[in-house]
Amino acid sequence: MQKEKVCSKKKCFSPEVIKRLSLYLRDLKNLQEQEVEVISSDEITKMLDISSAQFRKDLSYFGEFGKRGVGYEVSFLIRELEKILGIYRWWDIALVGVGRLGSALLGFSGFPQFKLRITAAFDNDRKKIGKAISGVEVKSLEEMPAVIKKGGIEIGMICVPPQFAQSIAERMVGAGIKSILNFAPVSIKLPAEGIYIANVDMACELQTLVYFLNRRH
Amino acid sequence: MQKEKVCSKKKCFSPEVIKRLSLYLRDLKNLQEQEVEVISSDEITKMLDISSAQFRKDLSYFGEFGKRGVGYEVSFLIRELEKILGIYRWWDIALVGVGRLGSALLGFSGFPQFKLRITAAFDNDRKKIGKAISGVEVKSLEEMPAVIKKGGIEIGMICVPPQFAQSIAERMVGAGIKSILNFAPVSIKLPAEGIYIANVDMACELQTLVYFLNRRH
DNA sequence: ACGTGTGAACCGATTCACAGCA
DNA sequence: TGCTGTGAATCGGTTCACACGT
Q1: Any idea what the CATH number is for the domain that residue A70 is in?
Q2: Which residue ranges of chain A lie beneath pLDDT 70?
């Protein structure tokens, strides 16, 4: 989607590598539930559509985690990936826009296993303010900067209609948000460097499906 | 995310190109609403994080749509992109899993402008079956194959818990579904060739945000 | 023997830079 | 002059293929 580039002072890995690491972690956790203890790069990448060389190379950027001739110990690799990805403490998220999508995300059960939790939700609809959704109280937009600052929240989620997304993003960054997951179908432009924005645009994804439908053999 | 590769008999463009075309289309429509009539590659790519050369090259794969020395006529380019992407008729979508996320998608207002519409929804929860959500009646899973076949539906959306996603995907493909947008956080493996699966995994996206948060300067 | 880890080769995608046209 | 369209150059990411360790 949009060019996403953020570099640390030291080594700089492309977001693609990191996304694949998250995928590996996700599937390793599934394997762990199935009580698989050791897995080879060949086996794990059969499920994903990724080559085994890619898997090994991705890991090699960060260290040596396998045993030659054997494979990878699932629980060990999970721990190592969690270290790499920064899953060593809880990460709080502030969500703006408690419409249908925002409410769905507030109740999404996939976050806790990655130590992610939405701890604050904001909307400008008087009818929603004060209500609790999935245990999170909806507050007014005016309260947002204070809540974000007080809680030291660094991750924001934008679920507002497109015309409001840009200004919400700016206000979030002003309050201290360092990275944003944007569900609004617009491009957000931020002046500040070092803010990472990821976009989830379902209509664009579907559009791509339609293109390939038309072109299929 | 996963390696997504589908080729037509003739020219084969990477999904990345197609996703960018959808992005261009989305932003062009926004420009049209703001009554912008002509735009240069420089101007439109300032909003997105894409180089103007990239924009011009992407379009050049499909034809010549601009005027040298002038730029691109917004309404003309919109029409051309709609042709390229296949937005010449309505595309029906079958959704499985009417939980929070499924319900949110049923009410999502961003689809119609791309001639996408969810026309069928399925769940195995007796309490949901028979109810209408955003005007779509929820049917039982048993009815799915028949409804998909009868309606000639080719696009599926999976919003079920991860452990059910694989089998739902297989049943969808068996019923005639040709491409799938998967929201369940698992890898889906399909034997059939020529089926395009796109994955939306919010936890993975957030994971990537967290990684860059940790690494920031 | 087996599967990892990795430099080297490869390939595709992005960017450059300028010719071509309004 | 200004901006498009596009071959050529570049860059980065993926794959290959094999040395290495168990």
Answers
A1: 1.10.10.10
A2: 1-11, 217
Residue ranges making up the domain that contains A10: 6-84
pLDDT for B185-217, tens place per residue? Answer: 999 998 777 899 999 999 999 999 999 998 864
Q: What is the pLDDT of residue B215?
A: 81
Of the residues A84, A107, A124, the one at which a domain ends: A84
Terminal C-alpha separation, chain A: 26
> Nearest nucleotide by C1' from B12 CA?
C12
| pTM, 2 dp | 0.92
Assess whether B150 and B112 both reside in one domain.
Answer: yes
Please give the protein residue whose CA is closest to the C1' of the nucleotide C7. A57
Amino acid at B98: V
Chain B 39-78 contacts with nucleic strand C (CB below 7 A):
50-51, 53-54, 56-57, 67-70
Across chain A, mean pLDDT equals 92
In angstroms, the CA B215 to CA B217 distance is 6
Residues A107, A18, single domain; the answer is no
B136's enclosing H/E stretch is strand B136-140
Residues 36-55 of chain A sitting with CB below 7 angstroms of strand C = 40-42, 52-53
**Same structural domain, B163 and B179:** yes
> How many domains does one find in chain A?
2
What is the residue-wise DSSP string for A117-134? EEEEEEES-TTTTT-EET
Cβ contact, residue pair A86, B209, below 8 Å: no
The edge-to-edge listing of strands for the beta sheet with B179-182 is: B132-133, B136-140, B116-123, B91-96, B155-158, B179-182, B196-199
Nearest to B21 by CA among B67, B75, B70, B86: B86
Distance between the alpha carbon (CA) of B12 and the C1' atom of C19, Å: 28
Residue B11: its pLDDT value, please? 59
Residue A178 belongs to some domain of the structure: yes
CA of B199: which chain A residue's CA is closest? A205
Q: Distance, angstroms, CA B11 to C1' D3? A: 28
Q: Is the CB of B56 under 7 A from strand D?
A: yes
Q: Which residues of B touch A103 (CB under 8 A)?
A: 100, 104
